[in-house]
Amino acid sequence: MRGQGAIIFLIVFFAVLMASLAMPEIPPGQTLYGLLGIPETDYLILGVSATVLMMAVFNGVVYGVIVWLLFTFGTAFMKRKSPASPS
Description:
By secondary structure, the chain is mainly α. Helices cover 68% and strands 5% of the residues. The chain contains three helices and two strands. The protein has a two-stranded antiparallel sheet. β1 and β2 form a beta hairpin. α1 packs antiparallel against α3 (50-81). The chain is elongated.
């Protein structure tokens, strides 16, 4: 079914986003933020520091893409391995 990968990505994205808001030191968000060279700020967005929010978004995207790729390749592999269904 099409769209399952998008749902998997969104679930992982939001789960990692929430976890990263609680623990912003989860890699690689802090490293990616540092590579951009943007100075840290205390500006609050919905009560969360903009810097922490950006690190959490980076983490959500990175881990979401990784899990989405694993899901996509896993389902393609399973379809190839399954016996052909009779028509």
